[in-house]
Write a structure and sequence with these properties.
This protein is mainly β. The protein has one helix at residues 11-20, and strands at 35-41, 44-50, 60-63, 67-72, 78-83, 88-98, 101-108.
């Protein structure tokens, strides 16, 4: 058996490192791959997105209370739709952008205000 044919226990780790560094050799850097983390902070939901190479002027956010859409870059080459882990009040959004890192905070929606049909 050749070494390349065996399962690599570190393959997933190296794939993630390549993704974070802009892709494997021969791939265009940037692309449409963003990295977004969501943090449930009790009454608030915080999202952090890595947008390398983007500038504040080229970041666009849209939220419907359940999904956050992030577009960034001069030609909107970054696009990510994030299904939020909790329903939020989209009108409570506060966002900061610093050194390619976007942070968005939302108040969670009061579940008593949601009409179920």
């Amino acid at each position: 058996m050749r070494r390349e044919d065996r399962d690599d226990p570190f393959g997933d780790i190296f794939d993630e490192i390549e993704r974070m560094m802009g892709g494997a050799a021969g791939e265009e850097p940037g692309g449409t791959d963003t990295h977004v983390d969501a943090f449930d902070e009790g009454e608030m939901l915080r999202l952090v997105a890595d947008l390398p190479g983007a500038s504040k002027e080229n970041v666009s956010l849209q939220c419907d209370g359940e999904t956050l859409t992030i577009e960034a870059g001069p030609e909107q080459e970054y696009r990510e739709r994030v299904r939020l882990p909790a329903r939020v009040d989209e009108h409570s959004a506060e966002a900061t952008f610093n050194n390619g890192v976007l942070e968005v905070r939302f108040d969670k929606a009061d579940t008593a205000d949601i009409d179920l049909e």
